[in-house]
Design goal:
The chain has 29 helices and 27 strands. The chain is an alpha/beta fold and 945 residues long. It folds into 5 domains: 238 residues, no CATH class; 160 residues, no CATH class; 149 residues, no CATH class; 109 residues; 94 residues, no CATH class. A 5-stranded mixed beta sheet has the order 21-20-19-22-23, covered by helices on one side. It has a 4-stranded mixed beta sheet with strand order 3-2-1-4. The radius of gyration is 43 Å and the shape is elongated.
Length: 945
């Protein structure tokens, strides 16, 4: 032995049973010190729980806690209860008496009990739970294991009744060595992917309660790589008995994939509780940086015991971790990260070194020694000890360091995985999902509300705050909202720095709500400045936020993170801090007129929807705020809302609210109706169009999923031009109920249907308006002379039948679908507003009555030009022959052929566009537009004769 009594049992030089006994005694001595420390921090009843657990696994007695049946596996290796333990049991159940197990070698299927967790460590706290490993024989049958599980469950319930949170985990040592286990093995465990790291933690932190001791204790560190050979020699040469030790395996090598798995788990936990994860993440980084020659902490721990260095403070599990991280970061010169680790350890221990409470304890003494080492002064300690009172400023500064550390760890793990090529398909997905978790929690982006308190302080709520709307002195002409501590008067707030400032109020209020700065008990002083904000509106805005974004947010499941984020909750607030009628002098007149539509209000057609603030919480728990104002605010908001809708049946919950001074409820309902209608149309997957009128302007939303477009049409003629544009597929048009109220189109447009041509007409004395909705819902309209229905409609019927005949002739016979031509009349006739639409029979063309046939063929000429040929009763007239006199020549021909002296309109009866458009099917609307242009030129020429 060396001066410090280091033991070096060597196979080559022979192993001394006495030396092995000394080694075991050293581990047990250290274990005894840790157990004493654990007991010191427990209540009397919790101490009783820990003291009695070995007895309850050693015997089956119907009067003791945890009893299931007489066949439940019982009997703890090398255990006989001491008198004080039996006395405690009899205090629980007076009629209990212990009967020693008879026989030379009675079965003892429970091999060992070990306590995991923070008990006995620097971080032990009142709420620390007990994770107990119950190591059992490998030959237990399924029925026996089920009985043992039931016993553990009953003991957990009993422990809870004694004020102790206990969890029991069944361990089959033989299966454990092979990496096989059915469940997690501690409340902090992340699963089977961390076998060796969990074993490392077990060997350096577990407290032995009773039963066999680990054979690993007896294997020198320098023999770790020869663990199997060494332990086989110990057993085969009977240096130790088979029933004395428990074999859970060695730590000569840790697979690199475990660092990825453990890092992923700690990063996942660190998003909500970063201080708890910082230490473990840094330890994983230390281990990974040493790979493949990782000298893990359990080996350092064992080496210290072999060297008889049994200082409980220096071997404390948390101090050991800290010392290793300190070495690593100091060597790298990363002192800011080291300071963060020190703060994380101090806050994890959670024992204040300042203030009047100075209860002596070994934990406090050790923490004071560490603080002196770190050269922390009273101011630093006071700041950390006041963590429960930290508010936004302190939390924001700490957040930067924590988020930086978490992001660094993620990048480190990702790079390590690439370098070691250890990323399986599962790990790759886990890395991607975790990257998205970090992005959602911490990444800054436009319009996103920053979350500043990921487990840093327990409560950021302020007792009193002041909201101020004022000019932004740094940006002339601009205004801003400021949030200040305390209740400040109009003369005071300018002398204080705001907690936060924002251009828009909802951006500020949403940030306050998301971070808990404002809660139900916060008192708010309001200085609205030039805005129309009232305390009533402010109160209701906060209530709406609380309703839409319920705190605390639940953890996002993995499945939504595998896809792009989509909105889950949407709150739209209209006219925040704005009174839409404020600038009208005589509100009484406006509010008593007939027109009450919020988008085209009163005789002046005023739009009352001036601003919209959209607050969105998406499927990744990100909260975003978007502001819409200006003349197209509602339409821009509608477009963006629709373009962000998810596919499928699960749609976001939409709320629309308005709390302005005038007509708030009507405004909110109007906006909500438009949003609901547009959303329902979009989800039907039919590429609808939705027409909305705002004041006297028209707006069409083209509703293609993910590609919603807003078309602004300032005037009615512009709208008609849009509706008449050629379409290549059927796209139904829906009218907002308040749009085109006094126009014929309000009756016509909603009647569009596919695969037919609909002709509408309305008579105005000696003229008639004719409208056609073609098979693709494109609109054509024309005002024509009116004599009677027959003379108005027969030319239209002839023309439409002719172009349909031509179209069908170009299609394969078995694909021809007959297309109906349907006629309607708008009534009543005359200058009054049309109220109804009535169907009319198609006009009949008398077979015995001849008509003058005017056919047109339009083909391509020079670029941008067309070539026109007209046939009058089969006689050809072309531009090639007549040039720009074509229409004049044809007009003379028509006049000469007519018998009547009365001049009446000439109609094109047939039109061929294949030379221009090819053989593809074109919309009937295209033919009607060419028809109108040709008829206009021809009738203008007729008027000259």
């Amino acid at each position: 032995m060396t001066r410090n009594h280091e033991i070096r049992p060597d196979l080559d030089q022979g192993i001394d049973r006495k030396v092995l006994s000394q080694l075991r005694a050293r581990f047990l001595k250290l274990n005894e010190g840790r157990m004493a420390r654990a007991m010191e921090g427990l209540s009397t009843r919790q101490q009783t729980v820990l003291a009695l657990l070995p007895l309850f696994f050693h015997v089956n007695h119907p009067l003791l806690p945890g009893y299931v049946s007489s066949s439940t596996p019982a009997g703890l290796s090398n255990y006989e209860p001491e008198a004080n333990t039996l006395a405690e049991a009899q205090r629980l159940t007076r009629s209990f008496s212990y009967k020693p197990r008879h026989g030379s070698n009675p079965p003892r299927p429970i091999h060992g009990l070990f306590l995991m967790g923070s008990l006995g460590t620097l971080a032990q706290a009142d709420q620390s739970d007990m994770d107990v490993w119950v190591c059992h024989a490998t030959d237990l049958g399924e029925n026996e294991l089920n009985e043992l599980r039931k016993k553990c469950q009953l003991l957990e319930v009993w422990a809870a009744s004694q004020g102790a949170e206990a969890h029991f985990f069944l361990i089959d040592a033989a299966r454990f060595v092979r990496g096989e286990r059915d469940t997690q093995l501690s409340s902090e465990d992340c699963g089977t992917s961390q076998h060796y790291l969990l074993l490392d933690e077990f060997y350096r932190t577990a407290i032995w309660l009773a039963g066999r001791t680990p054979i690993w204790w007896l294997v020198p560190v320098y023999e770790e790589a020869s663990y199997d050979r060494y332990t086989h020699t110990l057993m085969s040469k009977r240096f130790i008995r088979a029933d004395e030790t428990l074999d859970l395996g060695h730590l000569a090598y840790i697979p690199p994939g475990e660092f990825i798995g453990a890092g992923l788990w700690q990063l996942f936990k660190g998003i909500e509780s970063p201080y708890k994860s910082v230490l473990k993440l840094l330890l994983i980084e230390v281990y990974a940086s040493e790979h493949p020659r990782v000298h893990c902490l359990s080996l350092r721990f064992k080496q210290a015991v072999f060297a008889n260095q049994l200082d409980l403070d220096e071997l404390d599990p948390y101090v050991v971790v800290y010392r290793r991280i300190e070495e690593y970061l100091t060597a790298r010169g990363e002192l800011e990260r080291l300071e963060l680790v020190r703060r994380a350890l101090y806050l994890k221990v959670n024992r204040k070194l300042t203030g009047s409470s100075r209860t002596p304890s070994w934990q406090r003494s050790l923490l004071e020694r560490l603080a002196r080492e770190w050269q922390w002064d009273a101011r630093q300690l006071a700041l950390l000890d006041s963590r429960s009172q930290w508010k936004v400023r302190q939390v924001s500064a700490e957040r930067r360091a924590l988020v930086s550390e978490l992001n660094y760890s993620y990048r480190f793990l990702t790079q390590f995985a690439r370098t070691e090529q250890t990323v399986s398909l599962i790990n790759k997905r886990d890395l991607n999902v975790l990257g998205r978790r970090l992005y959602a929690a911490f990444e800054r982006k436009a319009n996103k509300v920053e979350f500043v308190n990921p487990g840093i302080a327990p409560d950021l709520a302020e007792d009193t705050l002041t909201l101020v709307y004022a000019a932004n002195k740094k940006e002339p002409g601009q205004t801003q909202w400021g949030l200040y501590n305390g209740s400040l008067t109009a003369h005071e707030w300018e002398h204080f720095a705001p907690i936060k400032r924002s251009r828009q109020l909802l951006e500020l209020l949403t940030w306050c709500h998301r971070n808990g700065v404002i809660d139900s008990s916060t008192r708010l002083a309001l200085h609205p400045g030039s805005s129309d904000m009232s305390e009533f509106e402010l109160f209701n805005l906060l209530g709406s936020l609380q309703q839409s974004i319920a705190l605390p947010l639940t953890t996002v499941a993995e499945e939504p993170l595998l896809r792009a984020s989509v909105p889950s909750e949407v709150l739209i607030l209209v006219n925040v801090g704005v009174d839409p009628l404020k600038h009208h002098r005589d509100l009484n007149i406006l509010m008593t007129t007939e027109r009450t539509d919020s988008l085209s209000y009163a005789g002046v057609r005023e739009n009352l929807v001036l601003t919209l603030d959209q607050i969105t919480m998406n499927s990744w728990n990100e909260v975003l705020v978007n502001r819409f104002d200006g003349p197209h605010a509602l339409l821009d908001c509608l477009r963006d809302y629709l373009n962000n809708l998810p596919n499928g049946p699960r749609q976001p919950k939409l709320r629309v609210r308005c709390f302005c001074h005038n007509r708030a409820q009507f405004i909110a309902q109007r906006v909500e109706d438009i949003l609901d209608t547009a959303q329902n149309l979009l989800l039907s997957q039919l590429n609808h169009r939705y027409l909305i009128q705002v004041q006297q302007h028209y707006h069409v939303m083209e509703l293609v999923p993910g590609q919603v477009k807003h078309i602004a049409l300032a005037t009615l003629p512009a709208l008609v031009d849009y509706l008449g544009a050629e379409r290549t597929r059927y796209s139904p048009l829906h009218l907002d109920p308040m749009a085109l109220e006094d126009q014929d189109l309000a009756l016509i447009l909603p009647m569009g249907q596919p695969d037919c041509i609909q002709v509408f007409y309305r008579v105005h004395d000696d003229q008639a308006d004719v409208y056609v909705l073609d098979e693709f819902d494109a609109l054509w309209q024309q005002r024509l002379p009116y004599h009677d229905d027959q003379s108005l409609l027969v030319p239209m019927q002839r023309f439409l039948q002719a172009i349909l005949y031509r179209r069908d002739a170009l299609q394969p016979l078995n694909t021809v679908q007959p297309m109906d031509i349907i006629y309607y009349q708008l009534l009543p006739s005359g200058p009054v507003r049309a109220r109804r639409v009535e169907a009319r029979a198609a006009p009949q063309t008398p077979a015995n009555k001849p008509f003058y046939d005017v056919q047109a063929i339009v083909g391509k000429a020079a670029p941008g030009k067309v070539h026109i040929t007209l046939y009058c009763n089969q006689r050809e007239f072309s531009e090639l022959e007549h040039g720009d006199q074509l229409f004049k020549v044809v007009a003379r021909e028509i006049v000469e052929q007519r018998r009547e002296t009365e001049r009446y309109r000439c109609y094109i009866t047939d039109l061929d566009l294949t030379g221009l458009l090819g053989d593809g099917q074109s919309s009937s609307n295209v033919y009607l537009r060419y028809k109108s242009d040709l008829e206009r030129a021809l009738n203008e020429a007729l008027e000259q004769f």
